[in-house]
Amino acid sequence: MSTGHDDPASRARVTVRTLQRMKQSGDTIVCLTAYDALLARLLDRSGIDLILVGDSAGMVMAGRKDTLGVTLDEMLHFTRWAAEGVERAMLVADMPFLTYQVNPDEAVRNAGRFLAEGGAEAVKVEGGRTIAPTIQRLVSIGIPVMGHLGLTPQSINAFGGYQLQAVDEAARERLLTDARLLEEVGCFSIVLEKIPADLAEEVSGAISIPTIGIGAGAGCDGQILVTHDMLGLFTDFKPKFVRRYAELATDIEAAVTRFVDDVREGTFPAPEESYRDDGK
Asked: Tell me: domain 8-246, CATH 3.40.30.10, correct?
């Protein structure tokens, strides 16, 4: 699928059906994260297929150590902002910890707010068989759901860290079974995070819905990264699976240092950056 700006197909709004057709035709789905209109607009203009308003905002925007403290109100806030910048890409919102795990009724109310108030077109939830009945309930009332298997950050305390998941045969089989179950209950796609590449490729071939990999190798139907990671804005740590396409933290620090020096030395603002009494 072309993403050229002159291609009419590239300007058509991406939907669940678009992603399904991309899997069937072998076109790779490209995804990134955004939490505000400015960044979402830049991603959208660049040809991104899906923008995730991730609860990763808790770490990259708020400086927290994990995603567990992100609230529903915070995620709705970020989602509304991002929605303002999107014209083409599909916008998916992460449901934060404890907004969908308690009971299906509460999950429905909270997920519905992301669509009705936040401007999202779908929500993402973490987990397999334990959350499947809730996913089925959401899908049954018209809320598209993206699943998430492997390393699920909201379960980080249970995992005891951010280590590779599904490495033994039993765990591999559980993940494959969960993926099939998520497809059965109606997920339109599944994020596979930090699992062996051969397992991700096996899962992608075993189900008919798209898989989106992050640290899961090249055999998935699509790829996603946290935008602040790939742009070099978030520098607290760099996972193995992140490729840095820019070093914006370094560029920003250098630019600000130059600004500070120019102001203190009296070279900014210059005459051409100042107004005269004639308005010019």
From this structure: no
Please name the residue ranges forming H helices in 61-168.
Answer: 72-83, 104-116, 132-140, 156-159
Q: The dihedral of CA 197, 58, 39, 188: what is its sign?
A: positive
Do residues 213 and 222 touch, judged by C-beta distance below 8 A?
A: yes
Cα dihedral 188, 2, 215, 54 sign? negative
Place of tokens 């809320």: 143
| C-alpha atoms less than 13 angstroms from C-alpha of 57 in its C-beta half-sphere | 25
- Residue 192 β-bridge partners: 149, 213
Beta carbons of 114 and 100 less than 8 angstroms apart: no
Question: Strand 189-193 vs strand 122-124: parallel, antiparallel, or unpaired?
Answer: unpaired
193 is catalytic: yes
d(CA 175, CA 29): 22
- Which pLDDT does position 278 carry in this prediction? 83
DSSP 236: S
Q: What angle do CA 42, 32, 196 make, to 5 degrees?
A: 160
Pairing of strands 189-193, 211-214: parallel
Per annotation, catalytic residue among 193, 265, 272, 273: 193
pLDDT digit string, tens, across residues 10-37: 679 999 999 999 999 999 999 999 999 9
* Domain range list for the chain: 8-246, 247-280
Q: What's the DSSP call for residue 251?
A: H
Residues of the chain predicted below pLDDT 50? 1-6, 8-9
Supply the pLDDT for residue 7. 56
Q: Which two tokens stand for residue 68?
A: 């567990």
Could you tell me the pTM of the whole model?
A: 0.93
